[in-house]
Structure formats: structure tokens, C-alpha cells
Amino acid sequence: MTTPTRETLEKALKSDAKLQAAATQFANELAGGTYTIADLAEQLGFALTSADTEERVAGTNLLSAVLNALPGDVLNSKQLEFLTTFYTDRLRDHHNVMPAIIVGLNALVHMKQLPAESVPLLLQAFFQYTTCQSQTRGDRTKIFNMFKYLTVHYQPELVKMAGDFLFGLINSIDGERDPRNLDIIFSFMPEFISQYPLLHLAEEMFEIFACYFPIDFNPSKEDPEAITRDALAEKLTHCLVASEQFAEWTVSLAVEKLDSELVVAKLDSIELLHQAALKFSPAALEPYFAQIWQALKAETFPGSDNADVLRCALKALAELLKSAAKVPSISHNYQSNVLGVVLPHLSDVHHRLFHPATAIALMCVSGDAPYAADKILNTFLLKLQTIELSMKTSEERIKFYHIISQVYKLAALRDSLTKLDKAILLPLQDDVIAALRLCERDDFDAKQEDLELQTAALSVLCECVPVLSEAQRALVYKALVQLISHPYIDLDFKLLTVNLGALHPVELQSSFIDICIRNFDIFSEFIKRKIYSNLLPLLPQIAFTQRILDLVMKEVFTPTVTEPGRLLALEALSTLLNQEEQRFIVELQQQSNLLHQLIELARNTPALPLASLELIAAALSRIMQQLPLSEQSAIVSEYLPTLDLQEAAQLYVARGLLGYLHKDIALDDHFERLLDDLTKLSLSSDNEQLRTIAHHLLCSLVNKMDNTKENRSQVKRIIHQLKEAIKSGDQRAVHLLAWLAKGLVVAGFEEAAEIITDLTDLLEHPTLCTAAALAFDVIAAEFPELDLPVVKFLYKQKFFHTIMNKLGSKLSNYCEHHMKAFIYVLKATPHSVIRLNIKQLGPLLFKTLDAQSDGQFLCIALNICNNFVKQQDAYFQAHLGHIIPSCLELSKQKTQPNMQVRIAALQLLYDITKYPTYVLLPHKVDVTLALAAALDDPKRLVRNAAVKARNAWYLVGAPSGD
User: Fold this and answer.
1) Which structural domain range is residue 358 located in?
2) What's the whole-model pTM score?
């Protein structure tokens, strides 16, 4: 095949569509080697050299489109050199040809074999013969993308161009206003500026960005991919700190704009200073720190009214001080300037500048902890020495202690705690310990004191453990023993004991733990609880593990320990098992056979209270969950056959063993007996707690059962037994049937449908209808404490559609108990499913709101409606005329005595105000007048909701409310 004929080329030039199609075809032929680019250019010469401008534009467009469609490795260096010469010459052509030339240049620079020496020639010609800002927005986008590519891939060549390229680039950018183009520029220029020498053009380079600061730009709401103001501002900031040569101008610009009244300008200026601290060296910023500090001080001391401005200003100051810490001389200069202003105000807690001074002082510590902490702590020490330590609560001392605690914490985070001046720390810590030891005095009345001072003292001691002297630690141990053995005081000092144990285990053991354990038997229940609470966090520390375990085990399993001592020990054991990892629990079980001991304790201890049995069951469950499947199976096989489930203690043991048993462990050998025993207990016991355990175990058992014919026949037998009991009016049988249905529904067993049908029929029963409605709540509701590991995919959706089909006409006729049952089902149905069926369900929800029935029922319906209203659902928008009067009626105390219903109705009215104004205006007057009654509601929470809703309605249609 030969090169395209003139006739073919002329046809291609007639329209853009034909031109693009031809360009793609020619590019494929060039890539296949059918002819060369020189051949094509020669054939196209009639158009490229035509005296007619439009024909030259079309010819250049075709050639550029071909280059754009070519793979990057097709053309060799000679061909590209020829094309570069052609395009650089064409830069002098008519301005109408320029868009086509720009496309061609963009394609050329992306070619892999473009000679490096061609790049300077191309750019010099471009800067000489064309002006970027005179091009259209789209063409400028192509130009900036070309610059972006060249700065990344041709750095050596651009550096050789020196000021020529910089000057041309600055001129090209200068005056750009389009945010999309600015986004491109701001994205690649920071890296370019940081890598290229700016020579004498540094200030000019800075100024082309400074003119945009701060960004004043509102993106189009109709553009889904609109560039945000914040994103553009962030990229601009990176440009302004891209070179240390910008330091002086950056600081000057930020300080100038920080004086603005606009919050956004202040925030951008502060962020610019923050980025300067991150990017510029301390030496570059030191000459301007006084200027920066004066500007930031105006926003932090006493502080801006805007919380965001204050927070960002403190963050910027902290970064400046942190950066300066790398150079001690500069850091000390900065710190002296700042601390010289704030330290005098740290001595008077009542002064209006105390809190701003505190915030700034803590920023100083976060920057250069050794220097700042010493100065700040010394200020507090001098002040504390002038305040008498007395039984009377000292507001000053408490506030000082809280700040001192934060200073210690920040110093520790900077690994500087041990570098602080001991001459300041020791007397300061003596004061704190003395405040803590006030509780040792005979005249200390724990009932009168609020213990705030002691709490503040403990917060300091928790942080300063590494720098406490031996003598101070001895006093602390003595104070801790006094606190833990005090009959009334219950202060939390767990963190202090953990920190002391980590650094001084032998001391803590002998001076605190041993004393607690040695006297444990004589302590009251209150003190024992405190000891457990403070010793258990020490368990992970190997030095104390066995000692604490021995105490807990002794108190749990020693026969002579009586209640409530054993109950406390079981609570401690439960806490221990919940806080430890699997490895620890497995090792504990292997070493002490804990599970066996707990089972024997439950079975052999007469009259063990239900609270203790509850804790034993929880401990057994926790242990079983951590054991391998083989051990779980062996334990069940060993103990389950011997359990009498009619006995409370043994029922709790069964709950512990089976409640969270792994679903892969088969219970087929025990399944029939478990079903019979648990059913018997559920139907015969008067103890609600025991029946609940039986219900949960049955639900979990049928959920995890193997899908065998034998197991399913056993379940059907129990269902039949319950039906017979229901015929005699037994409500317990209805309740148990619901729990069986729950396990079967979640697992997706077919037997669930039979139970659902029976429960649906019971909704018309004269005496069991209420129990039947509640049964649907049991089936639909979530129970976190219930283990149902076998979950059928989309079971909630299937259950919803089953109920919809079975209740049918009863719902449309609004039968009360049918509606209650259905609302319970809706509560657990995914929102997406309800939305798909909203046209059927909407009228039912509205009828429910009109019915003024019981509170729980109405709260569910209101919450479902609220989920739609929050999303501004179109269906609910069309029915606001029905919803609003119903909610107004429900918000009145006379109509609805349930407080939660009134609050939910008012919340729904508030969320309705998010709909478009034109929809709300017809209702505005009626709603604002009707809500006046709720403003006088006797319940504070209802009044709060009423004020919120009424204010929102009052503002409907206001200028800022749309």
C-alpha cells in the first residue's frame, strides 16, 4: 500500500470527524511500516504550505492528530528532529494555526526518541514566538501539561537553558486565572522549584504564586469533579514554600494576610507558616521569627474568637519550635521570646491570660522539652511554695498539677524527662506527694472532701515515675497502701502502679502488693474490690503474674471463702480472662485445669447465688472460645452427659460450655436430650433468668445443628409438643417457639416457615395474640450475647418477604396485632429493602403514627420514617401533609405520655426541615404555632428537642436557610 493520495487527504480535511478517523488510520499504517512520516508530510505539503490559512490549519491539525495517535516508540530521532524543526518554524504562523501546533508539540515531547538537544530549541522558539496567556483555556492546559512533562523528563537540558526557561515559564504562568490550569501548575511547580536553580529570578518566581494567595475561588456546584478551594489552597501553599530562597517573602506574605478579617485568609496564612516551619531550615527562618511570633501571638494570646484559627495557630507555633529544636542556639532564642511573654501569666489561675499562656507553654514543651519544661516547672514550683498546703481544696494547686502532668507527659514523649533539672523536679514532686498524703491525716474526712486535689496529684505522679527519687517512691508506696486500705476513698491509681511496676518491680512487690495480699482476708468487701481493680492491670508484668493469679484462685476456689468474697473473686477472674490474650488463657487452662475447677465449684457448692453462677458461665465461655476444636469437643464429651439441666447450677455450666461452642463440633449424640431437657425447663420453671438461658441455648443449638434427617425430626417433635401446649393457652410455649424460630430463620432451615405460619395464626388468638406479636420481635431483634454462627445469606430479606406474604390483607385492614408484629419485623429489616417496598409500606407506617398506640411501637415507626426523611426521600416528601400533623399530635404530652415518642416525633419534625424550602413553606406557620405547646413540656429533653425543631422551622425561607 502506498502513501495516501491527495484526494484521500483532501477528503480527510473536510470535517473534524473525518480528520480524526483518518489520523487513526494513518497512525496505524505508520506504525506498521507502510510508509514513513516524511512520506506523509510530503503528501500533505499542499495543505501545510497552502496560502489559505484555513487549509494550513486543517493540514497542521491532521499531522498533529497523527502524531498524537502514534505510539511513542515509532519515530526515530532523525524523524523527530525533522518534525521539531517543522513545528518550531510554524510557531511564527498565523495565530489560528497555533492550537494545532500546540497539539503537535505536546505529542512530540512525549516521543521516546526525541533528541534531548531538540528540547531547548523547541522551548526557545515557543517562548520567542508565542504567548501562552493569549491561547484558549484548553490550549493552555496542553501547554502546562507539556511543561510538566518536560520538567520531569528533561531536567539537565532545562538547567542548561538557565534563566531562559525560567523566564519563559514565569511569563507563561503569569496571569493564569482558570482553576483547572492552576491546579496543574500548583501540582508540578513545587518539585520543579525545589530541584532547579532559580538564579536571579527567585523573587519573580515567588510573586507569580503570591498573587493568588489566599485563594478566593468558589467551585461550580454543577461540576461533579470540581476542584475545591481547599485543595487548590493546599497546593498553592506548597509552591510558596518550595525553596528556602522564598523564606523572607513567605513570612512577609503570611503575616500580611494574617491581619485579614476573613477567617479563611487567616487559616491559609497560618497554614503557610506551618508549612514554612516544616520545609525551611531553622537558620532560614530565624531572622524572621520575631515577626512570626508577633503575628501568631495576636491569634493565640489571649486567643482568637474562632476555635479553628486558635487551634491552627498553636499548631504552627508548635511546629516552628519543634523544627528549631534541631539547632539549640536558635531553639533557645525562640523559646526565650515566647516564654518571656507567657511565663508571668502562669502564676495566676484567675487571670484571663492564664489559659492562653498554658496552651502556648505546652507548645513550647512539645518543641524543646528540656529547655521549656525546666522554665515552666520552675515557675510553678516558685508559686506552689507560696501556697499553703491545707485540707481545704485549692483550686490553684489543682490547676497547676494538671498542667504539670501535661508538661511531664510531653517531656516523656520527647524522650527528655530524664534530662530535666533535678533541682526543680525533686521539690516539685515533694509538693505533689505531700498533697496526696493528706489522706493519711487523722482529720481527713473523705466524705467531706471531693478528692480532686488527690486525683490531680496522682495524675502528676503517673507521669513522673521515671524521675522519682527512692525516698519519694517510698512515700508514694505508703500513700498507696493508705489509699487502698481506706474505708471510703476509691481513687483510680492503676496507671501509677503499672508504671511503678514496670520500672521498680521489687519495690512495688514488697512495699505494696505483699501488704495488700498479706492482709487481704481482714479487709472489707469495698477494699477487696479496690485491690482487685488495682492489681489486675499488673498481671501482664511477669514479675507479678503468679502472685496475683494465686490470690484470685485462692479466693475463688477455697471452700472457706464465703459470699460476697467469692463473688468479688469471680468478678476479678472474669475481668482477668477478658483482658488477656488467647495464649495466656490456654496456658492457664493447661497449667491449672481452670475449666474443671470452675465446673466443680458450680456443681459442688450448695446455694451458690445466681450472680456467681453467671460469672462462672461467662468464664467457662471465655475459656472454651480460646481452646482448639479438639479440646472443646473432648470437654463437651466429658461433662455434658453428666449435667442435670433442671438444676440451676448445672444449667449455667451448660451455658458456659455450649453458649459459644464452635459450630463445627457435632452434638448429635446429645441433641435429643438437650432439646427435651431445655424445653421442659422452659415450660416448667418460674425463674425468668433460667428460662432465658434455656431459650438462648435452644436457639443456638438449632442454629448450629447438622442438617440431618434425625436432627430435623427431633426439632419437628419439639415444635409439635409446643403446639400442643399452645392449644391449652400456654404463653411460655409461644415464647419458646419464637426462640426456636429465630435459630432456624437465621440458619435458613425450612422448618422456620412452619413456625412462622403458626405464629401468624396466633395473632388472631383471643388470649395469645400479644405474646404472638412479641414473638416476631424476638425473631427479628439482634441479641449480642447470643451465638448464632450459621447465617443464611440475605435471611433478613427473605424473612421480611415471608411475613409480607403471610400477613397480606390483615395489614391493609390494619389489624392491631398484625401491625405490631410487622413493625417489629421492619425494625430489623435493612433500609434498602424497605426502600424498595416503600409504596406498600408507607401507608402502613402512616396508619401506625395515627393509631397513637404503645410507645415502643411508635418509636420504631418514627425511626423508620426518620431514616427516609434524613435522605430527603421523594416518597416522604410527597406525603409531608400526612406526616407533619401526625408528628405534631405525637409531640403533645396530653396525647402521648411516652417521653421517647415525643422526642422522636420532634426529631422527625426537625429533620423534615432539610427538604427544599418550597415544600416546607405551606406548613411553616402551622408547625411553628403547634410546637409552642411542646416548649412547655415538663421534661427537659422534650423541651430541648422542641426548641431545636421550632427554631429550624422558624428559619425556613430565611436568606441563609435555603
Assistant:
1) 277-367
2) 0.78
